[in-house]
Structures are given as structure tokens and as C-alpha cells.
Design goal:
The complex is a heterodimer. By secondary structure, chain A is α/β, with parallel strands linked by helices. Chain A has 3 domains: 170 residues, ABC transporter transmembrane region fold, CATH 1.20.1560; 114 residues; 255 residues, 3-Layer(aba) Sandwich (Rossmann fold), CATH 3.40.50. Chain A has 22 helices and 10 strands. In chain A, the strands form 2 sheets. In chain A, strands 6-7-8-3-9-10 form a 6-stranded mixed sheet, with helices on both faces. In chain A, strands 2-1-4-5 form a 4-stranded antiparallel sheet, covered by helices on one side. Chain A starts with a helix and ends with a helix. In chain B, 65% of the residues lie in helices and 10% in strands. Among the domains of chain B are: 152 residues, 3-Layer(aba) Sandwich (Rossmann fold), CATH 3.40.50; 72 residues, P-loop containing nucleotide triphosphate hydrolases (Rossmann fold), CATH 3.40.50.300. In chain B, the strands form 2 sheets. Chain B has a 6-stranded mixed sheet, with helices on both faces. Chain B has a 4-stranded antiparallel sheet with strand order 2-1-4-5, with helices on one face. Classes of the chains: A alpha/beta, B alpha/beta.
């Protein structure tokens, strides 16, 4: 839900704006065609041939009429008919091959672009995702790329094809009769004007229509979501009135569009009938002087009707180009900015680690460092601690104390501004990112499940993982019973309606995931939400299993975890206030004691209350 | 198909547009069909005139004949343009009536749908997703519209053009007509099949497109998991696979889509080749003239689109029918909570004494009771508080009062009337409700607050805002109460949004005020201020407040502690503290929290 709202939010402010033609941008779009240049050349060649084959047909008809029909030569007519049929057949076939070929080229080029965009986005550090709405990124990788697709698949080749077609039609006309050619072409500017006038009107009208459609949709979206509010506040009549207004504006926008279409189609046939009339008049008069034959006249009737199509196509293509450019500008804008974390050029090798962690005077803020030297909003202030291999360390603290930040920094989701974070004595910045993260296992409180099977969620799509290992991990964690209860077991789609998993089950899956990847160092954010006692026991076992034999850094929410931890780090407002074992800290009677009473002690009490609650209900 | 019959009355309603529209369609088609006849006349007249012209070779009359002929030709050309203008004029009117009428019907249909949606109960909105409802009210209505207007127009035009053209052609030469029209049925059939394939494949394409989108969305939402398990490369590969599949679907579609124009071209071209071939033979036999060939060539071209459109129309009708069924599904859903025979219309005003008697509530298909055995009474003008953990049933309890849901068993009474007998309008006018999930409309702050009242004075608006502790914030906004909230305007903080919803409820000055965990996003200080304002109306208004914060409820006249849908404890703050148990635990925990915050 949250992501869908984000999606619309991300899109809203960037409705496709009008764009002007930008040759540099076009060149950059077209550069994606380079890997397929021999196919592009072939397409050009085929388009060129197809462009001749159309206009050649009226000429063949002219020959058929003048040289054979009028002369009564049936055998000759058959020959011409055969040629005509061949030209037609070839034109049709080439048209098909061309359409498909240009699509093929375009789709391959767009595939390259789309995967590049996705790879680029994925490479960005978490800080980038904090600042950019996900909806916007999704738009970049999908619909923006899609709008360029039309330019790549049809754009360039088709534009040239239509230009060729116009040239050939003109050439044939001049070859047959220059005077009639001039007469026919006289109408052409009018046709161009009508077409482009219409295109301009309609595209501004389309913008208006799109706006109205968007208004209507967002009204619906808002009111369907907020319907209880409308009903509870007796606003039905007023909202109906407002809906009617919006609906009316929507209707009006469409009706205005209809007006232009209603004008355009007749205008086109009137203009070509004017050409027809002119041809017949001038041609007829010329025929008296034997300057024009009947066949030529018939051929010109055809030409007069033929040159409209390429003109209309050209105006369509121009529009495609413009909207493609608007998309391209946004996509390239994204590609041109790379915020990915700097990788060291000379990485420390990392083959298995001991699991020693050290934070040395770490200062960190999520904000940019202010340029004027003022203090930023520090999230961590001079935090130092160390964890020995095999130790379990619990982090505790109130919300906003900086617990999650510690984890983020250890996995190098962000770079710190000051201090050092060392794993096995080496600064995390000196490892390759992938090496570092491969040796650290992260289990988050809010377990993210991908759509797809249980198995995919456990292996995260790593096919190198043996299914037997998956089963073993699941068994060890104790998640087997619930997975086997699912209708499709390991192949159950976790997002399917009705089979969505409980919070506890999600946690178990995350543990199994961590077991499978078998990290030396486990970073864990325990779940806060309560689960029933039965699940609680399973979870506890699972947790013990996962933590066994690893260095563990845990944001603790469970009493048992803090009790058994080798060390507890007490965070408060970005500072490490206290550290020690549970009993040591309790003795100190400081912050930890309060936190303990606030967060953990209740867990003991809760068990008592819920059981006593049961008793009282049963007693009642 | 049956589903579409429900639309018939709309044709009748807009007969003033449909009848002239269809007449214009016919007129336009007839003028169009006349053009080729004139072309034939011109072409055929040329040899005759040339003959005549040659007879007067060398005489003065020759010049006159030339002039006469040239004027005659010009006249003919003028007739062509005239016919074209007439046809164009009627075709303009045709679109301006029939297509416009379809937009009117779309408008009516959508109004009816929205009106119906406003009557439906929350259960409907649980069963149908927002996206689904919106798709039906946009896409489906659009598909139905295409059937109502364009489909009817195309089919009429097609029939008129085809019938008149074929009649004229038949009079000239039945043989040639038969030959020339040979490819036409093939055209209609292949268009139908290609259209169907295109439809199927574009649906497959759309599905894959949403798979790709979902993939991106998931990868980006779960980016933390992917990065921590260094799955970026694997995810890239997976994305490439989905993209490749998308490309494959695109090319599947391109395969049939590329066939469109070639099919039209080939079949029409075939007709023309046949005309030249067979027509040529007939000319040689002296049965027809060259003018007839020219005429036929134009007719064949003229018929292309109408014939092809028949193929489209069939798919249009099919899709419209499916869409109409989906719309009817909504129209046929009856509201569950509405006035009915049990409604007592004599109840026009309420004081606000609330009573629950053995109330139980269970969600459809739910096995567990969300609420069970709830009984209590709240005198008019007093304040009831409901506390408990998340999921204890607090919101369910409060939703029963304004009938957002009806109890599965037991009775909810206001002023002694079962709420189900109170006219819905009266009941809801008598309640001010602040929901747990803050919901504001994208409108001005002022309009959001006055959402539930009509003709409100400035003074009342300011007072409500002050009572919700929001006035100062609003006055700092650039446009005060006129400031837009949401996408088009400023982003309110969570607390400001919540206080706006409180003001929205307060301004109604209704006898009952329901606050469902409505102070969760404000700090304790603001909470106290707002609660003090509310308490100032003690005795005038019944307040039901749900909270998990003890500080918000401790001064209530009566407190209910819920746990797993049951009433665990009840009493006043002091009584409950003395009693111990859950209430006391919650209270102590919150005191500690305050202490930690203060550190």
C-alpha cells in the first residue's frame, strides 16, 4: 500500500512536459542502436525498396490502360497484371518484414537500456534510496524507458521510409506528366498544413484530456479510499456534486477532442478531392490536346489519394520523437548521476573472517555535511566499542537512539564522516563491498519477502544452493512444520492472497535465510511484536540455533537475549551511554535499569497477566 | 451480450442525438459514394469530346468546343469538390452527434456508478480493491462507451457505404463487381482474427509489463536485503530474464501487429489488381468503359475502411459486453448498511446516550470473535475511554456506534433506540468521528475541516481549529486556511494531519464525538491541550475515546479495558489503578517511558 501511494506521488509532479526537439538527445538515444547497426542498415535498405513498390503500382496501371486495354492486347495486359501483383505482394511482404524488423531492433536496444537503468539504480547506496521516492525510480525503469522504445523501434527508420515514399510519389508523377504533377503537388502544402494544424490542436487537447482523466482518477482514488469519511460526515450529496463537475469537465474535454477529429477526417478527404478535381480538370483539358492519356489520368487519381498517408505518419512520428525525448531526458538524467560508494582500488582479501568488530570514535549523520562548518544533525556521536569473535553483543536503547544506524554502518550501507569501523582489524572501506557483506548476515525486524515461492525467498534466487541444504536449514530453525502445512509447501507463493505468513513465520524464514548463507558474523534486529507462547518457544530455539558459533550483534527486544548477551551496549541519543553485562548494568542503576523496566520487565509480567486474564475469563 | 441490453434505454434518452446522427451518417455515406460516378463521367466524356473536337478540326467552332469542354470539366471538378464538402459536412455532424452522445452516456453511467459507490458499506470496500473499482469506473466504462457510440457509427456507415457502393457497382457490371469484391469478406475476417490476436497478445504483454514493474518495485523496496546478501548481480540477472521475457512478448505482439497494414494493403490491392485485370478484359469486350475502371478503383478503396471496421466492431462489442458485466457486478451489489423497513423515521434528533448490550462481532469468514459479550452504558454528555493493546478490538467497538459495521449479535443503542432503527442520516449527523488512520482530501485545510458541515462561519472554523490546537500552525501557513494539503500543496506533519481530522469532527458540534486513537501522532503536551478543550464541553457531548495512552484517558468518567475482544476491566482511573492488572501495567510502563524521554 505504502509503495503504491509513493508511486503515484512520485509520478504526479512530473507529468510529461512539452519538449522541444533536441538533436544531441536524439543522437544519444540513437546510439543505443549501434550494436545492431547492420540490422539497421538492412532495415533502411528494405524500407527504400518498399517505398518504390507502392508508387510504382499506379504507373503500372497507367501502362495497363494505355498500352494494353485501349489497344485490346489481352496477353500484354496479363503480363502487366502479373507485374502489378508481384509489386503488390512484395510491398506487402516487405511492409511486414520491415515492421517486424524495426520492432526487433528497437526491442533489443530498449532491453539494453532498461537493464542498464536497473543495474544503475541497484548499484546506488542506501542513502540514494532514502532521498529518492521509489515510485520515481520505478517510473524511470519502466514507463520512461518505454516512451523511448517507440523512437527506437519505429522512429528513425519509419521517418525515412515515409520521406522516401513522398519523394518517389513525386518522382513518378513528374515522370508521367510534369504539369499534372505540379497541379497535384499544389495541394500538398494545404495537406501538410491541415495535418500539422490538427496534430497541434489535438495534442494540446490531449494534454487537457489527460489532465481531466488524471483528475477523475485521483478523485475516484481518494474517494474510494476515504469512502467511510464521506459517509460518516454525510457528505454524499456534496461529493456527488463535485464528482459531477469533474466528470463534466472530463466529458467536455473529450467532446472538444471529438470536434477536432470531426473536422480533420472530412478536411483530409476534401483536400484530396480538391486534388482529384484539379487533376481531372487540368488533365481532361490536356487530354484534348493529346498531352495526357486516360491511363495517366487514372494513375494521377491514385497518386492524389496516396500522398496523404506518409504526411500523416510523419506528423505522428514527430510526436513520438518529442515524447520519447521527454522520457529520455529523465532516464539519462538518472544514468548521468552515480552516487555509488567508492570502492577501494586495492581491496584487502577476505577469505573467511574471525568476526572481530571495532568502532573507533564513530561520528555519523545521514545529512550532507554543512559547507559553512556548522555542526550537522549527528546521529552517532563518538561511538567506540569492540566485539571479540564469538561474542554476542546486544544493543539496547529507546527509539531514535541510533541502534539501527550502528547496523547500517557495519554493513557499510553508508559511509561515516569521522572515525573508523574495523572488521578483523581492517577498515570496512578497505574491503570490497561484496566481500564484506557476504561475510555478514543481516536479519531485519521487518522481514521483507519477495513475491514468489518460499524457496526463492530462502535462497534469494541463488541456484547454487542445494535444495537439501534448504531443507536442513529449515529443519534446524524449526520452520518445517509451518512450511509443510502450506498448500504448496516450499513452492507456495508467499504473497498469494489468504496464504500470507504471520510475523513469526516471516521471522523464521529470515533466520533460515541467514542459516543458509552461513555468515561468520550475524547482525540481527529482533522482532518487537508479540507472538503467541507456542511460536515464542519455537522462535527462541531458532534464535539460539542461528546465533550458535557466530559473532552476533543484536538489537535486542527480548529479555532472554539481553540476559544472555556477553555485553550490552546502551545507546541513547546517538551516544554509547553504558556497556557491560546484564547484571553489571542493573547494579549501576542507570539508564539500563529504566530501559529494562520499560521494555523487558513487562515481558515477564505479560506472561503473568495473559495467563491470569485467561483464568478470569474462564472463571466468568 | 445480454449485459449490454441494459444500455438500451440510453439510446432512447439520447434519441435527439442518435436519430439525426444516424441520418447524417447515411447522408454522408451517400454523398461519398456519388463522387466516383462523377469521376467516371469525366473520364468517359474525354474520348467523346476528343472525337467531337476532331470533327470540327480546322473550324472556328473548335475553339468554342474547347472552351465549352474546359468549362464543363471545371464544373464537374466543382461537383466533385461540392459532393466532398457535403459528405464532409454530414460526417462532421455525424461525429458531433453520435460520438458526443456516447460521451454523454459515459458521463451518466459514471455518475450512476459513483452515486452507487457512495451507498455501499465498508464490507464492499474490503472485498474489492481500490484499484479494481477504479479500473471498472474508467477502463470498463470507456469500453462500453466505444460500443455505444463509435461501434454503432462505424457499423451504420459501413452498411450504407457498402450497400450503396455495391448497388452502383452492380448496375454497371455484376461480373466485375463479384470479382472485385472477392477479397472483401476475407478482409473482414482476417481483421477480426488479427484484432483478436492483437488483443490477446497485448494482454499477455501487459501482464509481463506489470511483472517487470513488480520486480523493480520489489527489488527497490527490498534493496537492503539484496545488498546485505550481495544479491545485486543475481537480481540483475533475474531482471534481465524478466526483461527478455517482456521483449519476447513485445515481439509476439509485433508479429501480428506488423501484419495489420500489409493485410489491408494486400487485400485492397488485390481487389484493385482484379479490377484492372477483369475490368480491362471487359473494356476490351466493350462491356464497360475505362471510366468504370477508375470508378471501381475508387470504390474498392472507399470500402476498405468500412469493411475492415466490421472486424473491429465485433471485438469492440465483445469487450464492451465483458466490461458491462463487470460494471453490473458493481451495480448489483446491494448496500448492507442502509435504511430499510426497520428504520424509524420519527427519530430526527439524538442526545447521545450510548448502550451496548451483549454485543459480539465477527468478521465474515473469521473464526474468532473480534468482540464478544460487550455490555456497558454511557449516559449522554459523559466521557467513555477504551484502552487495550493493539488488536484488542478497540476500533471495532467504536465502528459499531456510527454503523460502519453492524454487530453479529447483541444490540447497540443510542437514546434507547437500536442504531439499526435510526435513520442513517440522523445517526451520522449526530456523530463526529476521528478515525485512527488519518485521511485528508487533497483540498485546502479549511475545506478539509469544514468537510462535514454546510454554510460554516469563519468564526466557527477558527474555533474548531483552536480547539484542535491547530490554529497557530494554520496561521503560519502561507495561505492560512486556503493552503492546499497533499501533493498540490504543503506536506503537513503527521501531528498536523491528525489535528485537522480532530477539528473536522469537532466543528460538527454533534452530540457524540468518537476518537479512535486520535492522539497518537501528537505529543503529550498537545494531547493535554486538546483534551482540555474537549472536556470544556462536558455534559453537552458524549465522548468515546480509544487510546493506548493512559494519559489520554485517565480523566474519563468510565474506562473499559479490552483484551482479545473481551472486557477485562472497567471503572474509573483510580479504581482501575487500585485493582491492578493490565491497566496498572500500562500506566506504569508509560510513566517509565516519560522518564526515559526526559533523560
Amino acid at each position: 500500500m505504502a509503495t503504491t501511494t509513493q508511486h503515484t506521488n512520485g509520478q504526479a509532479p512530473e507529468e510529461k512536459q512539452e519538449r522541444t526537439f533536441d538533436a544531441g538527445l536524439l543522437r544519444r538515444i540513437v546510439s543505443y542502436l549501434l550494436p545492431y547497426k547492420s540490422w539497421v542498415v538492412l532495415a533502411f535498405f528494405l524500407v527504400l525498396i518498399a517505398a518504390v513498390l507502392g508508387p510504382v503500382q499506379p504507373w503500372l496501371i497507367q501502362i495497363a490502360i494505355d498500352d494494353y486495354i485501349v489497344q485490346g492486347d489481352y496477353d500484354g495486359l496479363l503480363l502487366i497484371i502479373a507485374l502489378l501483383a508481384a509489386a503488390l505482394f512484395l510491398e506487402g511482404t516487405l511492409g511486414f518484414v520491415n515492421n517486424y524488423l524495426t520492432q526487433w531492433i528497437g526491442q533489443h536496444a530498449i532491453y539494453d537500456l532498461r537493464t542498464t537503468v536497473f543495474e544503475h539504480i541497484q548499484k546506488q547506496p542506501l542513502g540514494f534510496f532514502d532521498k529518492t521516492p521509489i515510485g520515481r525510480l520505478i517510473t524511470r525503469a519502466t514507463s520512461d524507458v518505454e516512451s523511448i522504445s517507440d523512437v527506437l523501434s519505429q522512429g528513425v527508420v519509419t521517418i525515412l521510409g515515409d520521406l522516401f515514399k513522398l519523394i518517389f510519389i513525386a518522382a513518378f508523377m513528374f515522370y508521367l506528366n510534369w504539369m499534372l504533377a505540379i497541379v497535384t503537388l499544389m495541394v500538398m502544402p494545404l495537406m501538410v498544413w491541415v495535418t500539422f494544424w490538427f496534430r497541434r490542436k489535438v495534442s494540446s487537447q490531449y494534454r487537457e484530456t489527460r489532465k481531466q482523466v488524471a483528475r477523475l482518477n485521483s478523485f475516484m482514488q481518494e474517494h474510494v479510499t476515504g469512502m467511510p469519511i464521506v459517509q460518516l460526515f454525510n457528505r454524499e450529496q456534496e461529493e456527488m456534486r463535485r464528482f459531477r463537475d469533474i466528470n463534466n469537465a472530463h466529458r467536455q474535454a473529450h467532446i472538444n477532442t471529438i470536434f477536432y477529429f470531426a473536422l480533420f477526417w472530412p478536411a483530409v478527404s476534401i483536400v484530396s478531392d480538391v486534388a482529384l478535381g484539379l487533376v481531372l480538370w487540368v488533365g481532361g483539358v490536356a487530354a484534348m490536346a493529346d498531352a495526357v492519356t486516360l491511363g495517366v489520368l487514372v494513375a494521377f487519381i491514385q497518386y492524389a489519394r496516396r500522398f496523404f498517408e506518409p504526411i500523416r505518419n510523419l506528423s505522428d512520428q514527430y510526436n513520438t520523437l518529442l515524447s520519447g525525448m521527454a522520457g529520455a531526458e529523465r532516464v539519462f538524467g538518472l544514468l548521468d548521476k552515480d552516487y555509488s560508494l567508492e570502492e577501494t582500488e586495492d581491496p584487502e582479501p577476505m577469505n573467511g573472517i574471525d568476526g572481530r568488530i571495532e568502532f573507533r570514535d564513530v561520528w555519523f549523520t545521514y545529512d550532507e555535511m554543512p559547507e559553512d562548518g556548522t555542526e550537522p544533525n549527528w546521529i552517532l556521536k563518538g561511538v567506540s566499542f569492540s566485539i571479540e569473535p564469538g561474542e554476542t553483543v546486544a544493543i539496547v536503547g529507546a527509539t531514535g537512539a541510533g541502534k539501527t544506524t550502528l547496523i547500517n554502518l557495519l554493513l557499510r550501507f553508508y559511509d561515516i564522516q569521522h572515525g573508523e569501523i574495523l572488521v578483523d582489524g581492517v577498515d570496512v572501506r578497505n574491503y570490497r563491498l561484496r566481500d564484506l557483506r557476504r561475510h555478514l548476515g543481516l536479519v531485519l525486524q521487518d522481514v521483507f519477502l519477495f513475491s514468489g515461492s518460499v524457496e526463492r525467498n530462502l535462497t534469494l534466487g541463488d541456484e547454487a544452493i542445494d535444495p537439501d541444504d534448504v531443507r536442513r536449514a529449515v529443519q534446524a530453525i524449526g520452520a518445517e512444520p509451518f512450511i509443510e502445512r502450506l498448500p504448496d509447501g516450499y513452492q507456495q507463493d508467499v504473497r498469494e492472497r489468504g496464504a500470507s505468513l504471520s510475523h513469526g513465520q516471516r521471522q523464521l524464514m529470515a533466520f533460515a535465510r541467514a542459516m543458509l548463507y552461513d555468515p561468520k558474523l550475524l547482525v540481527l534486529d529482533e522482532a518487537t511484536s508479540s507472538v503467541d507462547t507456542e511460536t515464542e518457544a519455537v522462535m527462541q530455539d531458532a534464535l539460539d540455533k542461528v546465533m550458535e558459533g557466530r559473532t552476533c550483534l543484536v538489537i535486542a527486544h527480548r529479555l532472554s537475549t539481553v540476559r544472555e548477551a556477553d555485553k550490552i551496549l546502551v545507546m541513547h541519543r546517538g551516544e554509547l551511554r553504558e556497556q557491560g553485562t546484564h547484571s553489571e548494568l542493573l547494579k549501576q542503576d542507570g539508564l539500563y535499569r529504566k530501559l529494562y523496566e520499560f521494555q523487558y520487565k513487562e515481558q515477564e509480567r505479560r506472561k503473568l497477566t495473559s495467563s491470569s486474564g485467561h483464568e478470569s475469563l474462564e472463571g466468568a | 451480450m445480454k449485459a449490454l441490453f441494459r444500455l438500451n434505454h440510453y439510446y432512447w434518452e439520447y434519441k435527439h442525438l442518435f436519430i439525426p446522427g444516424l441520418l447524417c451518417t447515411i447522408a454522408s455515406a451517400i454523398f461519398l459514394v456519388l463522387v466516383p460516378i462523377v469521376v467516371r463521367e469525366i473520364i468517359d466524356s474525354i474520348p467523346r469530346f476528343v472525337e467531337l473536337y476532331n470533327v470540327f478540326e480546322g473550324t472556328d467552332a473548335q475553339g468554342q468546343i474547347f472552351n465549352l469542354f474546359s468549362t464543363g470539366l471545371l464544373l464537374f471538378a466543382g461537383v466533385i469538390v461540392g459532393l466532398s464538402l457535403a459528405s464532409g459536412f454530414f460526417s462532421f455532424l455525424m461525429r458531433q452527434t453520435v460520438v458526443v452522445a456516447s460521451r454523454h452516456i459515459e458521463y451518466d453511467l459514471r455518475n450512476r456508478l459513483y452515486d452507487h459507490l457512495q451507498r455501499l458499506s465498508p464490507k464492499f470496500y474490503r472485498d474489492f480493491t481500490t484499484g479494481d473499482v477504479i479500473t471498472r469506473s474508467t477502463d470498463d466504462i470507456e469500453k462500453v462507451r466505444r460500443y455505444v457510440g463509435p461501434a454503432i457509427m462505424y457499423i451504420t456507415r459501413a452498411i450504407v457505404v457498402v450497400v450503396t457502393a455495391i448497388t452502383v457497382m452492380f448496375i454497371i457490371s455484376p461480373t466485375l463487381t463479384l470479382y472485385a469484391l472477392l477479397p472483401m469478406p476475407l478482409l473482414a475476417i482476417s481483421i477480426f482474427f488479427v484484432a483478436r490476436m492483437v488483443h490477446k497478445r497485448s494482454e499477455a504483454l501487459q501482464r509481463q509489463y506489470s511483472t517487470v514493474t513488480t520486480r523493480v518495485q520489489e527489488a527497490l523496496t527490498g534493496i537492503r536485503v539484496l545488498k546485505s546478501y550481495t544479491r545485486e548481480d543475481a537480481e540483475n540477472e533475474a531482471f534481465q530474464e524478466e526483461s527478455a521475457r517482456y521483449r519476447a512478448r513485445q515481439l509476439d505482439l509485433a508479429w501480428v501487429d506488423s501484419a495489420w497494414r500489409p493485410i489491408l494493403l494486400l487485400l485492397v490491392g488485390a481487389s484493385q489488381v482484379i479490377v484492372v485485370w477483369m475490368g480491362g478484359r471487359l473494356v476490351m469486350d466493350g462491356v464497360i468503359t475505362i471510366g468504370n475502371i477508375a470508378e471501381y478503383l475508387i470504390y474498392v478503396q472507399m470500402m476498405t475502411w468500412p469493411v475492415a471496421s466490421l472486424g473491429f466492431v465485433i471485438t469492440m462489442v465483445q469487450r464492451a459486453s465483458a466490461s458491462m458485466e463487470r460494471l453490473n457486478e458493481l451495480f448489483d451489489t446491494q448496500p448492507e448498511i442502509c435504511d430499510g423497513p426497520q428504520t424509524d423515521h420519527s427519530i430526527t434528533e439524538l442526545e447521545g446516550a450510548i448502550a451496548f448490550e451483549n454485543v459480539g462481532y465477527r468478521y465474515e469468514n473469521g473464526e474468532e470473535w473480534a468482540l464478544k459479550d460487550i455490555s456497558f452504558e454511557v449516559p449522554a454528555g459523559s466521557m467513555l475511554a477504551v484502552v487495550g493493546r493493539t488488536g484488542a478490538g478497540k476500533s471495532t467497538l467504536i465502528d459499531l456506534i456510527p454503523r460502519l459495521i453492524d454487530p453479529t449479535e447483541g444490540e447497540v443503542r443510542i437514546d434507547g433506540h437500536d442504531v439499526r432503527t435510526i435513520p442513517l442520516d440522523t445517526l451520522r449527523s449526530a456523530t463526529g468521528y476521528v478515525p485512527q488512520d488519518v485521511f485528508l482530501f487533497s483540498d485546502t485545510v479549511g475545506n478539509n475541516i469544514t468537510f462535514g458541515v454546510t454554510d460554516v462561519e469563519d468564526q466557527a472554523l477558527r474555533r474548531a481549529a483552536r480547539e484542535a490546537d491547530l490554529l497557530e500552525n494554520i496561521e503560519e501557513f502561507p495561505d492560512g486556511f486556503e493552503t492546499f494539503v497533499g501533493e498540490r500543496g504543503i506536506t503537513l506533519s503527521g501531528g498536523q494531519k491528525q489535528r485537522s481530522t480532530i477539528a473536522r469532527a469537532i466543528i460538527r458540534r454533534s452530540p457524540i464525538l468518537l476518537l479512535d486513537d486520535a492522539l497518537s501522532a501528537v505529543d503529550t503536551e498537545t494531547e493535554t491541550t486538546i483534551l482540555n478543550h474537549l472536556r470544556a464541553h462536558a455534559g453537552k457531548r458524549t465522548i468515546v475515546i480509544v487510546s493506548h495512552r493512559i494519559s489520554a484517558v485517565q480523566e474519563a468518567d468510565h474506562i473499559i479495558v479490552l483484551e482479545k475482544g473481551r472486557m477485562l476491566q472497567q471503572g474509573t482511573h483510580d479504581e482501575l489503578l487500585e485493582e491492578g492488572g493490565l491497566y496498572k501495567d500500562l500506566h506504569e510502563k508509560q510513566l517509565l517511558q516519560k522518564q526515559i524521554e526526559a533523560l
